[in-house]
Amino acid sequence: MKVKKRMNRANWLICLVFFVLICAPVWALNPKPRTYVGSDACQDCHETEYKNFQTYAKKAHSYESIKRMKKGLEEADFCKCFECHTTGYKKPGGFRSELETPHLKNAGCEVCHGPGSLHVETGEPKDIKGSLTAKDCEECHCAERVKAFDYKPLIYGGAH
Question: Which domains does the chain have, with CATH numbers?
Answer without folding.
Answer: 39-149 (1.10.1130.10)
